[in-house]
Fold this sequence. Notes:
The protein is an alpha+beta fold. It is built from eight helices and 17 strands. The longest helix is centred in the C-terminal third of the chain and has 15 residues.
Amino acid sequence: xxxxxxxxxxxxxxxxxxxxxxxxxxxxxxxxxxxxxxxxxxxxxxxxxxxxxxxxxxxxxxxxxxxxxxxxxxxxxxxxxxxxxxxxxxxxxxxxxxxxxxxxxxxxxxxxxxxxxxxxxxxxxxxxxxxxxxxxxxxxxxxxxxxxxxxxxxxxxxxxxxxxxxxxxxxxxxxxxxxxxxxxxxxxxxxxxxxxxxxxxxxxxxxxxxxxxxxxxxxxxxxxxxxxxxxxxxxxxxxxxxxxxxxxxxxxxxxxxxxxxxxxxxxxxxxxxxxxxxxxxxxxxxxxxxxxxxxxxxxxxxxxxxxxxxxxxxxxxxxxxxxxxxxxxxxxxxxxxxxxxxxxxxxxxxxxxxxxxxxxxxxxxxxxxxx
Length: 371
């Protein structure tokens, strides 16, 4: 489990450090102080062999992938690609750190695929002429055992076939990469506030938990939101798998989407917990779609599930009701099980201010601003 984190030169975060992280860490702060950026940094640190994550974080924010001249640039503070991004983590695995350095380099200075590096691309290789961006993003990662890995990604364009040389084809473009795989690293899941999991992903995750006999944990998590829930059943409708809920008193199962946005969000969250075993579950604006009266039960069950699946949860919030509910649900847990941080500007720079249980309780009682 991660216990300390330092992020440097990422998005709007110049140098932010958090210590004494918990099994569940809640992060608050005003708009624009970097709460989502902090989750994105954690996600990149948990996937240090996949530089394409550098573009996926923008899709979670509702942004399209930019073109070859600007792709990856918005990851760097003030778009300053000359300053490397660094993420350093300490954990209960020992005294050594895990470090990820992210940089941009000119593409022409680097060789093509080398032995020992597995190439993965969003578009398969082609014999057609290709053009590539001027630079590439490079992930240099040092694991806690001292082993080092380098992965990279770049923009490319597959040009159309010249007239007379074959079937007419249009140009295609995307991200191509070379990955040096970190063996045995766990998966992590990012649940963005603007993103909704597709039906096939949800059904696949539910099926995996059913095979493991862990779907009962999902029912237990959802019971505070829908006390009449008796079971969950995947049903395929026109080749689309849809999870249906068996509700006491109803004659037939109904799609879980009809039980409300809050129910569906918590269902997706619980499934993600099972997928992220041994890794991180990163939740942006955890309170979205949830009534404040169920939040305390939600946090209590989240902690139980996090222990069961060995998942570390990081969540952001704008809600004082959410902060109060988390404190109420988690204050009896061991000190290392929960943590609360508020990101705020101090002397013009964003810093993370930590609250222990007593400090947070005092702040809540005196109605101090902690959001």
